[in-house]
Amino acid sequence: MNKISSSKKNASVKTVINILSVLSLATPSVSFAESSTGGITIGTRSAEDVAESKKARERSECNQARSEISSAKNKIAEACRKAGLGSGCAEKAQACSETLGTDSFDTTDAIGTLMGLPAGSNIGGSCPQMNGRDYYDEKKRLETEIKDTQKDIAELADDEAEIKETFNTTIQELQQALTDAQQELEETKTSLDEQEREKISEFQASQNAAKEKLREYNSKIISLRSEMTNAVREKATKMLELTAETSKYACNQEYTKAAESYGKVNASSSGSHISKAKAQKAAALDAFNKCMNRFQQARISLNEQSAAKMESINDQIRNAEASTDELNDSLNLASTQLDQMKADTTKRKTQAEKKVTDLMTLTQNKMQAAQENMQTKLKALATKQQSYTEALNRANNSLMTLGPAPKRGAEYTSEEASSEISAQTEIIEDVKANIASSGIDCYLGEAAKGSSKRSRSSGSKTGRK
User: Fold this and answer.
1) Engineering a disulfide at 411: which of 82, 170, 237, 398 sits with its beta carbon 3.0 to 4.6 angstroms away?
2) Model confidence over 199-242: pLDDT tens digits?
3) What is the CA radius of gyration of the chain?
4) pLDDT at residue 111, as a whole number
5) 32 forms bridges with which residues in the sheet?
6) pTM for this model (two decimals)
7) In whole angstroms, what is the distance from residue 69 CA to residue 429 CA?
């Protein structure tokens, strides 16, 4: 027996005991004395008074019992009304209470839902688990929770798609950046190779031109040195013509001619031949001296001209040799510059390749980081989805196990109605049992619907009083 039934039963028993106590106090006092033969002697009151008092007490007890039974029946009817169980309320309430008290109810109803039965079509019976307000509030709450949870799960799918799209976009951007860098590397290498070829071509052209110029200068130097040799030879040849003996020989000839004129003057008969002869001799000596002076001047002039010519040739040779040295220096410098240019080209290629290599490493790290980030987010989404799914399953299970829908105005559940009906039925049974045990002939009306077997089989005889 539940707590409600036990408490109400005890209350009813106490009520009956109190009534009996009050009636006993209200009954006129009667003294009884036991005779020596075992009989009872009535004292001051007559037997009629005692009988009438007993009948009054029995009527009061009977009326009180009928009142309690009527009150219990009214409460049973009120419980049925509040439970909304309709006809056969007491039997339905008791059956539902027994069904709801087992572990098979929720499982049975859940199986029925999974089998495709309409919501609230409980295959285990038609026993609502809640009153009307609680049922529909709970149903609305669960339906809202299911709807919101389904929306959350759908949003998780959108979040997952967005995460994957972001990841794919990031990967594509990184791959595109790497592809652009690799293309730029190839263009840089092609450009550097082309520049190197142009530099080499220019170097070779300048080298060829410089070599050609060197050959010209070398040829010129050889020619100038040949001219120098010829100039020296020519000077030597001309100096042979202007030696002291040659000049004396030539000048002696002029002196001889002048001396012949002097002899002719000396042999003449002219009175002034002496003075003329002296003048002629002086003229002959002067001619000789002038002749020797001409030779001297010629030698000086030849030396000066030869020296100037050889100096000019030497200057040209030195200039040609200087130009040759400059060309050689230029060739060597150009070769060094070409080597430096090749080294710079190689360095720039290496730097460009390193840049791409570093970018590849960085891109790989970024891709790995993006993948790890995506996996972390997807894992978090999976955790959320599992949580939402579990919440959705719980809500669906709760919705499936709500049981049949009670009437919207139902204030009691079947179990609550059953407890109330059981309690009031116990009160009725206790009152009838007390009347029966007291031996009072009392009509208590028809047995309450839903009364226990004990009440139906009590066997108490009742009569209208």
Assistant:
1) 82
2) 889 888 888 888 898 899 899 999 989 988 998 888 888 777 76
3) 76
4) 42
5) 42
6) 0.48
7) 9
Looking at residue 15, what is its pLDDT? 43
Both tokens of residue 95?
A: 């059956």
First to last CA, the chain: 33
What DSSP character marks residue 44?
S
Residues in the chain, overall count: 465
The angle at the Cα of 447, spanning 441 to 448, to the nearest 5 degrees, equals: 135
Q: In the chain, how many H helices and how many E strands?
A: 9, 2
- b/e burial code for range 90-115 (CB count within 10 A of at least 16 → b): bebbbbbbebbeeeebbebbbebbee
- Could you identify the residue written with the tokens 């409980």? 122
Distance CA 258, CA 252 (A): 9
Q: Which two tokens stand for residue 268?
A: 């003449």
Q: Which two tokens stand for residue 461?
A: 């005889």
**Amino acid letter for position 241:** E
What is the DSSP-derived secondary structure letter of residue 443? Answer: -
Question: For residue 290, what are its two tokens?
Answer: 């002038």
Higher pLDDT, 117 or 377: 377
Tell me the sheet residues that pair with 34. 40
Which sign does the torsion angle of CA 272, 277, 283, 285 carry?
negative
User: DSSP letters along 274-337, please?
Assistant: HHHHHHHHHHHHHHHHHHHHHHHHHHHHHHHHHHHHHHHHHHHHHHHHHHHHHHHHHHHHHHHH
Could you give the CA distance from residue 446 to residue 457 in angstroms, rounded to a whole number?
Answer: 14
Residue 207 confidence (pLDDT): 87
Which two tokens mark 247?
């000049």
* Ordered DSSP codes for 100-157: HTSSHHHHHHHHHHHTTPPTT--TT----SS-HHHHHHHHHHHHHHHHHHHHHHHHHH
CB 121 within 8 A of CB 404: yes
